[in-house]
## 1
Amino acid sequence: MRVLAVSGSLRRDSHNTKLLRAAEELAPEGFEFELYEELESVPPYNEDRDGDEAPLGAAHLRARIADADALLIATPEYNSSVPGQLKNAVDWASRPVRAGALWGKPVVVIGASSGMYGAVWAQAELRKILATAGARVVDAEVAVSRAAERFDADGRLVDEEIRDELRAALDSLVAEVEPQLVAA
Amino acid sequence: MSITEAVQAAPAGIWKSDPVHSSVGFSVRHMGVSPFRGGFADFEATLAGDRLVGTARVESISTPDENLTGHLLSPEFFDAERHPELRFESTEIRRDGGEFVVSGGLTLKGQTRPVELRGSVTEPVEDPYGRRRLGLDLETTIDRTDFGIDWNAELPSGGQVLANDVQLTARLELVQDA
């Protein structure tokens, strides 16, 4: 099962990227992780530029999503919501309507923030926009609050409770994807 | 309850829907102010003795906006990819006073729930081409959340954008199978 992992944070030392690395470490057998690292090169959505020859960054994003069986997205929270670059990626991947890369794609949303709430608002909004884009949003949540305390100096997730939550979220993703793989 | 006749409630013979002169639609209150209406263009219904079966292709849902159509077909609403068909199968047909009543199971988004359709049926007439036709007009109201169609959003003044109760209508012109 090919999973494209997308971090909504572009920061080099991002907690959300570390969270995705932890997911890769904890994933059940058969998971094939690809970390998407080109989010910064996706240009702002512009319908005038969207067509058969979409800008390279957007076309690449669409192709990576289309090739994956599922997505795992980790989002930080900016001003109580989704970072602009992540929303922008959803906008590109949602078009064309009913034929976009996100259409019917199983997605798990998780998130980390340095504050008290683990990006729960951003996660809720991301689930909302993904569902509107036609993705199959899996009912699972991992909210990592006070993220700076949850990883060790090597970037490894050391909070056992969150490790368990992450395993459960990945299991939910498997449950969503596997009937499709069997049917395909 | 008024007198109920279970015997020969439906017209004898096999009757199939004329797609041009029939429609299957829904109506749901939007923003608390107005009924939003839509329909399914691709459907068929068969009335055979004491049994009525109707199916509609979810993909054929029609709305005036492709973005809205897309949202309705997505997993958040009908999930057309996994549940391409809407289906009704009767278990009992009866007359209740002046009403034609069809009980049965409605399957939507993979969930089957009992529903009761109520309406009327006309006497058959002969059309100019020598075939017999009758009209069957049925409706029911379902709670869409019973079928896992839960989407909603809050209105700024309180309340929800979309009602849970959805009225389903089938206005069928049925032609007798030769």
## 2
Amino acid sequence: MNALLETTALTRHFPLRLPGGLFGRPGLLRAVDGVSFALPAGKTLGLVGESGCGKSTTARLVLGLMAPTSGAVRFEGEPVPARRGPAWRALRRRMQMVYQDPMSALDRRLPVVTQVAEPLLVFGQGSAPERLERARDLMASVGLTPHLFERYPHELSGGQRQRVVLARALILQPSLLVCDEPISALDVSIQAQVINLLHDVQARFGVAFLFISHDLKVVRQVSDEVAVMYLGRIVEQGGPDDLFHRPAHPYTQALVSAIPSPWRRDGMRRIVLEGDPPSPTDVPDGCAFHPRCAQAMAVCRERRPELAQIGGGRRAACHLLTPVAADTTQATPC
Amino acid sequence: MTARLLDAAHARAQGSEGVVPTGEAVVPRGEAVAARTASLLARAQPLVSIQGLKVAFDDGRRLVPVLHGIDLQIDRGETVGIVGESGCGKSVTWLAVLGLLGTRAKVEGRVLLEGRPIHDLSGDALAPIRGKRIAMIFQDPVSSLNPVQRIGRQLIESISLHRGLGAQAARAQAVRLLDRVHIPSAANRLDAYPHELSGGMNQRVMIAMALAGEPDMLVADEPTTALDATIQAQILDLLREIRRDSGMALALISHDLGVIAEICDRVTVMYAGRMVEQAPAHQLFDRPRHPYTRGLLAAMPDHIGPRRPLVAIAGSVPEPGRLPAGCSFAPRCTAVEPDCSVATPRAVSVGTNHQVACLRARDA
């Protein structure tokens, strides 16, 4: 498989002190605990899960902003260096990040057009007039009108700011955009504008998205493939329509049934999980989901299920599901 | 049918300027019938009635109007959803009702609680109503709780305030309340600090505190917005259960139409400080009439059925104080016509309990 971005058994643990004793006791926070996925060029992989499931840490690992404890990230066929240096900087030109809050991602004291042109300056591309020219072109193509170019971030609306951030991320012509909750801070009517813009941008520039969100409806709307994370691991992965209409893993089932919708029909069963997700400093043995799972069996407490093909291009990590024999290159151990 | 009765009762209550006595014990024989009618009226009139509520904020130079005359009635035990985007005034409405807006806000209009006006009460006179009759919970439970006090102490404080119980009885009541909101091992949790509990647990504590005064109505301002999907489902379940058991009315403020659809009987849609549509929940979602409501529903992705392209509403919400002339939504509306920017449309009835403030409402 020729993937633009590939992670293999990506792991990041944070040592920390937990309460207890005079100086606390040592603990280990397993933020990301063996995540493998592949993202083809020009496609969108949606990463969903609740807070603390490790989706944002995965984003930081992918971009090389943080070194993994173990495992590897390959981008355009090359390993992403864990240390910042010339090689990392050259790679970072090809992969960019879009954050949740555009206001804090922008400099309040610079006109937005200067900020969109800035990455070109950083990488020493073109002369000053050329850089501004390219910035203006790109800003126009993400739907910003010329009278907004010289404004400051506080003079723009939330949706316009997010367009500025997108233009800035796109100006170096990256092949991957990592979007961490890019529309969660926006109003409902503006969210749709930005979702449609992301579709446009992908069609026009052929850029791939790693799209991270807690909002399952948005993830289904934008993704070609969806991976559901729970406590640092992918528990289920598949095509968006298939995964949401026929969730296989009990956690995905609960997650999907919890989505509030005005179009929900009375016949649809709702599964309300008990309790909170466990802390990533104290991941249960066996399947991490078993204390909240209504269908947990003895084996779930003892042995951790591996992510395996369950047919129809779906992968899931659950003892209830029977893996199907798949060709070995696809079945990436997780 | 019931609605029309209520309206009639309400109109009469208004006429008598809200002097309807409730629970009068000794009644002269000749007036028994009148008194019975009066107590029936008290029961039949809306629990809370907001009439022509206007709010403007003084920004130092001028008054910026943010609410332009809100009319809303909530009956006993009813769940009303108030939906709209940020800045539409959905929270300000309820902060104004409870007198929580501070000195920079200029509030006009009438608010009646069981027919008795409460809009002209000053801070101290409102105190017995806040929390005791109408309680409110907010989006972020952690910033509503005192971080350096154990939750038991905070809970007991509101119990002794509203119920006047002694220390022992208040503590026992606190445990019962935590039990009621399904916090496991409630007695032990009284000694926990807010940071030791998760977001969902803290919101349960807030709900328990709101229940301490056994209010007639709970105003929940985005109660699940800061929570994860599975925890949101738990909290919505809890609110539904409490409402069923206690018969408390609930005003749920949210930007999420999905959350509103989960538990509301009736929905009010707000835009730029005005109500644009009001209808029973299922009717609003199946047959929205205002172009803004239609726009919101078309702009919302969903997980049910096939994926469809989203239809975004062009432009953005106007700033308060810089509203366009006529209908505030006109510049973004796809069905706009020249007369839309002449006058602000008044709410018209388009069906049973269904009102729309749009000039085109009757055409559709």
## 3
Amino acid sequence: MEVEETKVLMVSWEYPPRIVGGLSRHVHHLSMELEKKGVEITILTLGFPGVEEEVKRGKLMIIRENEEIAFPNPEFISYVYQFNLHMFRKLVEKRVDLRDYDIIHAHDWLVAPLAIELKHMLRKPLITTFHSTEYGRRRGIHTDFQRHIHELEWYLAYESWKVIVCSWYMRNELLTTLSLPADKIYVIPNGVHPIDLSKPLDYWRVRRRYALDWEKIVLFVGRMAYEKGVHVLLNAARILLSRRWDVKFLIVGEGPMRSYLINMSRQYGIYNKVYFPGFVDDNELSEIYRISDIAVFPSLYEPFGIVVLEAMSAKLPVIVSDVGGFSEIVQSGVNGIKVPPGDPVSLANAIDYFLNNREEARRLGERGYRDVLEKYTWSKIAEKTLEVYENTIREYERTGWKSMI
Amino acid sequence: MTYEYPPYIVGEVSYKVRKLVKELTKIGVDIVLIHPSDIEGVWYDGRVEIWTVTKSLKTDLHIVTLSWSLSMDLVRKISEVVNHYRGAIDIIHCHEWISAISGVLTSLAFNKPLVISVYSVERMRGDLVNLISMSINGIEKLCFSHALYLLTDNDTTYSNLMNMREALSKRTRINLVKNAKDVLKIYRRTLWRWKRRKY
């Protein structure tokens, strides 16, 4: 089958403008690039009232279920099941010929019921991208609620013809927690749209919003959650600020731990050296990347870590903890520095090293920038995804498992 | 489709379903019955062809998540049956709300009319105040609205269904049926209406 003839039904619970996490952007960029390569894609997703229900752009069609809550649910899992049913109703309502699709591509457990049902009703191969697992998110399975999600993930992985994950770390997680056979899993990293460095920037005007002229800016971007390790960064900041005073820590993002972390910086007596601007839009964020001196990501759990690619695309020298996807993106001394997770002393030393060795920091930042352009563009990610589609279709065509209707 | 069938007995419904399908086969209706079981397979109860399906998820929080997760397995089995008969299934008939979710999905996917037998409704069983009860009530309304016919064998359920009528779609009709011959009449009407449908 030629690429031009491939027709994919992509199912995701978020797609812009509905943005809950990184999944929405992933599906958006991937589908755009696949469409550029000639693949016909229908994205079945959730929206919210007021958003266009059906959008057609070239070979890309977006179908949104906007009124997904019809009745109350006892908890989140029942809500997930309910909106899956509504998404299917919407697909049928739009009179899309379901038999035309070659592949169903699902993203994460939130669309597992629909993806599994579609696979059997259409008798078409199912491919799933796992962006994280319940086991990884919760550091184990502790309640029946988590176990139900874990079982749904297992069922989805079991029913999938192929599974895509964003890092080798995630591959190992699926091998051990979902008992998947290794030959079913493909590792395709996430992509990134590089920060536009040619865009005009009033450097000092932007910089003075966040720091004094003589201060070096150490940047963190991410959700204020325990697994992102911001508390480790604050501990490192206290250690570093006891040695030198020319540093400002800029901690960008929202999350459940934000007020706790602000209080923590007060208790440490470094409040005037740590700035929490909260959520910033994409434009402001790209300006922040360009005026910062170092980017630091001290996560304790990280399936991939797209933020580090964004920082590298702005030529920033990066320091990451040696966990998950970070370990695979960053090579110490080549395109950044890795430190042991949860170790504030090493983190403080690494920041100090970059501040004292500006030329080395610049060299590593340049190399990181080149790595992003070589390995992590959405065009390359789409190419690899297309290979998975083609392999799957080839295998499927050799089987007798076809619709008899 | 039914959630229960002997020897998998939860309540009276399993016996009622068995009696009905056996009588229907006697008057010339071909029945393929699907129900959850501990093993997957095909067997015959007289002339009734029975396909059993196992439940893939083992941890359920309550009856609502059980019904939703079971519907994935029922859809899997119905798809197998429909493909086995190359689409030559005329009507999808579900018993009670638990199996009705999969009935809605497969009726939409395979373009088949849906009939649901209702033996009681949540407003008779529950309080409609706690979230589980409200959720079951919501699922009932949603599934019942997809059906061409709702059948019941008792007056209490019939009057409760009639009270729910405002919340259901206009195409859904409610009938009291006492035996297999009544059900056969409904099947004929279902097929007649299905051929002339404008939706």
## 4
Amino acid sequence: MISLNDLRISYRIGSWVIPAVDGVTLTIPDGCIVGIAGESGCGKSTLMKAIYGDIRSPMYLAGGSIDYGLKSSDGRPVTTDTIRREWFKSISYIPQSSMNSLNPVKRISTQFTDFPGTDSNKKRVLEKARGYIGKLGLPPEALDSYPHQLSGGMRQRIMIALATFFQPELIIADEPTTALDVVVQKEILMLLMEVQEMMGNTILVVSHDMGVHYQVTHKMLIMYAGRVVEYGDTESVFADPQHAYTKMLIDSLPAIGDDSMRGVLASMAGAGGDRAYRVEPDLIEVKPGHFVARPSLSEGVAV
Amino acid sequence: MSTTIVSETAAPATPKRRRDSFLWLLNGRLALGLVILAVFVLASLILPFFCPVDPSQQATYLKNMPISWDHLLGTNAIGQDIFWFLIIAIRNSLTLGVLVGVGVTIIATAVGLSAGYIGGNFERVVMLVVDSFITIPLLPILIILGAVIRGNSSFLTVGFIILIFGWAWGARTIRSMALTLREREFINMARFSGAGTIHVLVREIFPYVSAYMLVAFINTVLFAINTEATLAVIGLSKVEVPTLGSIIFWALNYNALFTGNYVWIIAPIVATVLLFLGLFLTSTGFNSAFASKRGVQ
Amino acid sequence: MGVLQYVAKRIGLYIAVLFIGLTITFLLPRLMPANPIDGYIGQLQSRASGALTPEAIAGLRANLEELYGLKGDIFSQYLNYLNRVVLHFDFGPSFAFYPQEVSQIIFTALPYTLGLLLVSTIIAWILGNMVGLVAGYFHQKKAATVLEVVGILLYPIPYYILAVTVILMLSYVIPLFPLSPSFPVGQMNLQKFGMVIYNSLLPALTLVLAGFGWNILSMKALTVATTEEPYVTYARLKGTSNWTRMIRYVFPNAMLPQVTALALSLGTVFNGALLTEILFSYPGVGLIMRTAASSGDYNVLYGAITMSIIAVATAGLVIDLIYPLLDPRIRHK
């Protein structure tokens, strides 16, 4: 179980400070798929980076902490500073632009053998890999190919294979289906669900597409302007959204990814605009397992 | 308390407004380059008016005199004042560079634009010719020219030959720019909105193209001055004419190093390096200025 | 298959370029203002100081016209020319060293030029790219900016300036090298070979300095851009070390445009090499041409320029053919 305790992550750019994650407190349970929704600028990508442990200038931890509930190989609990050593072992990442995340001039096999600190016997690793990718619906020859020879869907499967190869407890999938066509999207989502069932781990799925969340996630988290607006079982959130913002997101299905909306909303969220949706960081349980945040009263703010 | 953390210079986190139209020009390289060029251009335009005698005339002064107020860089073994020789040399080299630059830019733009915009077999044939010209090394041809004409070539004949072979590079660059231009949204938009071809050409295409033309021009100036000087240094151009290359030729020929007249050879080296540095900085400076402007667009 | 198509296309281009180049060389003497035969006969006359009879002169002229392929209409001259040059590498005899064949003179000088060129270009490319890679990968460090400034200072300096400065620095100020290098002729033994190397160091240094600056700058820019690519970020998120990322992710990708750039710069590099040879009295094609220019030895000149065109075009072809070996996207469909 991962606990986020009043987590605050900001960016320092010149003399400005941008609070991208502004007080998030919640516990992510084990063994389920949790979706994180909200449009560009709401802080979900930053939150994922923070959880993954990829905190580099100009990003910094402005307050709060993350409790991973994991122990590293030397027996000590894993913290934000040490999580790096667990990359792709206890925690892994499927990046946003996975289409282009494979080295174009090397074969796919090298992606499996260049994890640092792994088995130095490359042959053994490759044999394991060959068997493994079969389970994800890939032919063994895929390992000997170059990325440009594989289709988008196959490349995404490779990314999933790489992310799950060491059977991590937590997988973060950042927009796993953007840039895929609808049929392939469905396949990938089913694959993610299968993987989660097989391994019993936790997958965090970030997406601005509410449809993806509806199909795949057990629990859902809605973010706006750096804070959590609503959180609960997916069914409950969709059936009975408690916050106006959540309602708006759901109503705009299927495509909140529709560009015409995005520019407007993103700039609003990023600039800390639209007072109607701003919330306090504390969540209140309004139904069993279903939390919502209170609207915020005037705060120091946006000009 | 959960007030939003904002620093004293309180402002919403919106991206800094685009710099206004002239500030984008002044990135470091460009500024420095332009300053250097300005110095050279002004010096070569204004100073010659103060020149007491024709510096290429030989035995005007005593030989190998050291630096003094009368002779700012001393005199050389042929009895010429080094400072004035250098100034006139700079003027001549710059003039040649600019003339060739203008000519090459015009040809390169015409060829590159038409090839890129028209496309098809026309483009293929043209690019084949361009690639051939790029492959043919220019120096051997200039050496042959030098042999045939044996120092009787006028200064400008050399420029002419450089022109004939030098347009190829520029044509290549402009053509690849033209390729992207073909697809550009704003061109099609203008066309579809009913604007006439002239309007499209002047308002939309020209500003874009002129950026490339400017950079190509500066690069050609550099190339032309360099090539002429190369020929002069090995003694195959009309070396009586003061140019940045011929001054070095004479210095080498008269063994300036042996006789200890270091100024004779170091002065043109410093001048050439500075001039080329200025041209180069200006060229890359414009390049990145235009690139960032395009990026913002 | 993708590769075969690529190779065929490149070879086709190569032949076309050669063809155009050879045609230009064919036309060149016919476009020049001076008639080389008159020039040559004039020279011979002055050397023989009147001992040549008019018949001898006429016979000589006829011979030369034959040799030069100036008999007959221009089309048959052209075919004749192509035949001689392409199939036999026959450029006729040298004027200055009659009756030594031009091709012989050129082929004696060619190894020197090629050796110098290849070695210095490869060193400049490798060194410059390595420095550029590191400077680009760690571009936030001060040292990287210093390296970039070095590149900016070196790049615009023309070959002749570099050559003269090198002579100034290393033959005068710090007299490490001789002012007039002498190159041993005849059979090569180890000692003579050593002398050759020693005397080649300065011209090689000049060429390396000239090419080094550009490689640093362009590789640095390419490296910075490549490091932003998603696949490099992903490698970082996998926990790979800086070294692994730099060597196995960034370099093999950033180097590709550099290979293409090298092919395009061959003409310039060749020019620079010729000039450097002349300034250092290095016995390569450049010096041959310069001497031929003074003595009006046109056969040598035209032979040399033909060889130059062939050399540059061939080098370009070789590089183009190496490219698919480096970029699997070209190699496999």
